[in-house]
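Quick note —
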Amino acid sequence: MNQSNGSSLNLPITVRSAVTRSAYLKINLTTTFKSWGALFLCAVMIIATYLLRAIDASSCSLIVIWSIALVYLLIVLVTAVYLAYTSKNSSCLLPTLFTFDDESFSTETELMQSKAKWSSIIAFKVVAGYYLLFISATSFIAVSQKALSVENAAAFEKLLHDKVKH
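Predicted structure written out below.
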């Protein structure tokens, strides 16, 4: 067993995982609607509605404001569907063998192999049954929670908390 910050972990952790198109769509929609931009839009819409009603503005103003919000939502939905079904992102849907150890992690698909240090992961979160390991603000590696055994899931979460700077 290897030591990581003083506690025992069974390393390396190896897991084979794949993301389905529907899961990728759900991940994109969930991360978008949980973003600060979406929350800010909702807050602005509520405040604008309240203020327009308070000053007794015409209903036309409310229609314009809410139309802008609906256009934004439509753009978000179309973008999420496009990202999930475009061939440009098809490589992220391939079954991937992940290997995580104390120093680095590696990914292997039928098309490529890569290895990176933990410092390349800027954040992680759990969304729609997947651990999302962010390598940039918009790019992530998805590891299915279901693909990990109970023991490996606990060790993997400990490894994430130890290695990824929040």
